[in-house]
Amino acid sequence: MDALDEAHCNGELEIGLKLGFSELGLEDESETAAIEEAVKVLLQSLGEDSTREGLRKTPLRVAKALREGTRGYRQRVKDIVQGALFPEAGLDSGVGHAGGAGGLVVVRDLDLFSYCECCLLPFQVQCHVGYVPSGKQVVGLSKLSRVADVFAKRLQDPQRLANEVCVALQNVIKPAGVAVFLQSWHIPFPEVEESCLGLISHPSKMDMQGWVKVSVCSGSGVFDNKNGDVWGDFLALLKFRGVNVEKNFIHSSSTHFWCPSRSLDAPTCNGHVSTKNVSNGRISSKTGPAYPAMITAVASILHSLGEDLLRKELVGTPNRFVQWLMKFNRSNLEMKLNGFDSGRRDVLKPNLHRGTGNVDEIQSELNMPFWSQCEHHLLPFHGVVHIGYFHAEGAELIGRSILQSIVHFHGCKLQIQERLTKQIAETVSSVFSKDVMVVVEANHICMISRGIEKLRSSTATIAALGQFSTNPDAKATFLQTISNTTASGG
Amino acid sequence: MDALDEAHCNGELEIGLKLGFSELGLEDESETAAIEEAVKVLLQSLGEDSTREGLRKTPLRVAKALREGTRGYRQRVKDIVQGALFPEAGLDSGVGHAGGAGGLVVVRDLDLFSYCECCLLPFQVQCHVGYVPSGKQVVGLSKLSRVADVFAKRLQDPQRLANEVCVALQNVIKPAGVAVFLQSWHIPFPEVEESCLGLISHPSKMDMQGWVKVSVCSGSGVFDNKNGDVWGDFLALLKFRGVNVEKNFIHSSSTHFWCPSRSLDAPTCNGHVSTKNVSNGRISSKTGPAYPAMITAVASILHSLGEDLLRKELVGTPNRFVQWLMKFNRSNLEMKLNGFDSGRRDVLKPNLHRGTGNVDEIQSELNMPFWSQCEHHLLPFHGVVHIGYFHAEGAELIGRSILQSIVHFHGCKLQIQERLTKQIAETVSSVFSKDVMVVVEANHICMISRGIEKLRSSTATIAALGQFSTNPDAKATFLQTISNTTASGG
């Protein structure tokens, strides 16, 4: 709820204008090519062969997704709202407020995606927009969503996004006032190194538990006065949809350093947000000098998106994005995890359910969380892994922590879910039990933040080895076990 | 689960091919213009002035939306999947099933929208797609969604949609098998005439209660055998997400006449679906000869979309769509409702809460359902209306049925939500109580099925007259009353 900077917003609109005119096909092509080159550098620095089949088109995919995800720089609010302002009668003054004069209109629960300017990862937004019509005109409802999307499709911070949407709508509709309330969720930075040792508590479900959440608001016109009754009306209408906002919240919202990557900048500076999900800066200390080529590549991506590298919010972004990518570089992990086949006794549990070789002998470890990075889009996918296995009579059970380590080992690289599933199964099979079944359930950020935007979609994959591939009852029993534990919890 | 007609699907792919090549800008422009002309005829036949500001661009909007909503005719599955088939190792035969050979992959909860071929209204689809990779290759996950969308963006029936998605994926990926499970929801045809008399039970919430729902599935390859274990695996993975399907369902699914408009064809022929939400055919009997210009206009729209008017599923579609539109023609209603200001005593309730002019005197009627038709897009919007009013001391209360009649009276025409809210408030104010407040909460099909596809979005509008516009406490009290009753129920 900082004061709205109208000059700044006009600047934004002009940037949109300029880019709108200069945005010819040729320029677009050269920007895309520049991003592709930068992504190749990143892949190579990660030790990947950027010519292998799965990665060959990744630079182009990433470039297109980033251009698409920042298309708001090349859109004009006026173009969108033009022709969608409709004359609509209001009531005479003194009679009341309704329709095109004073009748509050609120569009709730608009799902948006934006790119975090601190770390270049997408974040998810639930957007609620209200305005009070004046001048006996109303705007087409879908335009509230489309205008919000213009500003979401940029490198953003939640508070600035709210402010920009608010000012743009105020300028273009000229209503009595505009209110914007955003709930935003940011992917946590997984503690790859620590979680391999089983030390941290990860999001244990596929929902956004563990994500960093902030709520922000912005108001103009009659919503300028944070004590005004119209804020109460707006918040009441949100409450009908289960969105509970304390009215005193609108006096105090702040999102400084909401992005978990910000704590990497200086370990002692945690700003205003919880540090539960942020790293301890260990990687930070060694990243600065180590990956100059990668940092230069990310900087060139920002430049190709039309961003000003000197803008203060972006100064550390290339370094932070590189740190994120390096979390999925498995080289460090391989050393830590090379004890897999030595049968560490400390990770074996006593067998409480000794069986006789029947289906009853299946042991399960369910809902082990994982994070990985989609090699087709350089975007995270995350979820849970369920592992079922047969164990020999009298043998000890495999500890959850060692299974979790195997999951992380195979997750911490550029991956696809099908391969991850297979590799986890193969590792368990070769080290512990040839009869193993792995089910991976994941949300792919590329499926929800890019083109198709299938917000609720989730992907499940199965690998079945040994008896699980030959005995349908074994497979069905394990699937039923998962179902009993997780169904309706997702 | 009818046998899949591969020849038919190849035909579909060829249609896509042909249109893909012939789809030049000019042709597109002439098709759009033809639809615009037809929509103008419909507007005029509804007694509307198609040149008034709110409707001036409606023909263009409708034409664009219909072209966009049937873009699948002009898309080729091969173009979409090309370049997204990735080599991926499987396991040796005998060891098990995983990755690119035998490891089941399921993408769940894809939200799609399609147009019902029976009545030309959009219907909502929750789509689940699975396949078993073979030949050591997998397909990019988003392509499963994109291919499903190619067939959703046509005039469809749920079973045919499932079959076409299944066959197309089988042909283009050449996996061991493909399974498709769809849950579809169709808007009910509101019983406008009856509901004005308060006789029917309407969907009382904003969710899809009251909608016609069907589930269908389709399988190929290893999913051809409905008794195969792989169907069990697929359904188990859906169950993790709360989608419960009985395995014997896949032997018997059928969607004959799922569209509620089908019962309009012949009142005694209700097919296999529930008739709870379908009309009794009264309008039907007089529609046939009465609206030939409208029926011709809708037929020309189908033709402009590239459809074959002689295709048997489409023969009655123009007539059914006209009947739907005529439900929002208020002319019949005006006669029925002209008794508003005569103070019908049968609709007044005894006053159980006599008050003293304070806020306590507010009377509320909440969650009154309504249906209306968005004049910008000729698509329905629906939801609930909450009415609060002050009543004079000793006066009798306004009956819920008369308020519901007022709501329907103003809903049954081409509308916008802001105006509907104002008109309901004005009517109550002029007839019963000058101190009235109206809150309308609605889902707009145009917001969820068209371009922006904001599935969860909902719009709330307020009109406040008399004391409600001058006394913030009165307004806040009424909003709190709604909140207490509806919050978290949506």
TrEMBL record, chains A, B:
Alphabetical list of SUPFAM superfamilies matching this protein: Tetrahydrobiopterin biosynthesis enzymes-like
Cellular component terms per the entry's GO annotation: cytoplasm
The EC number(s) this enzyme carries: 3.5.4.16
Domain GTP cyclohydrolase I: start-end pairs: 35-187, 296-482
A Pfam family per the record: GTP_cyclohydroI
Protein name: GTP cyclohydrolase 1
Family stated for the protein in its record: Belongs to the GTP cyclohydrolase I family.
Residues in coiled coil: none
Organism of provenance: Tetracentron sinense
MF GO annotations: GTP binding; GTP cyclohydrolase I activity; zinc ion binding
Keywords attached to this entry: Hydrolase
Gene Ontology biological-process annotations: tetrahydrobiopterin biosynthetic process; tetrahydrofolate biosynthetic process
Family matches, as Gene3D superfamilies: 1.10.286.10, 3.30.1130.10
InterPro entries from the UniProt entry: GTP-CH-I_C/QueF (IPR043133), GTP-CH-I_N (IPR043134), GTP_CycHdrlase_I (IPR001474), GTP_CycHdrlase_I_dom (IPR020602)
Top-level taxonomic group: Eukaryota
Pathway the protein acts in: Cofactor biosynthesis; 7,8-dihydroneopterin triphosphate biosynthesis; 7,8-dihydroneopterin triphosphate from GTP: step 1/1
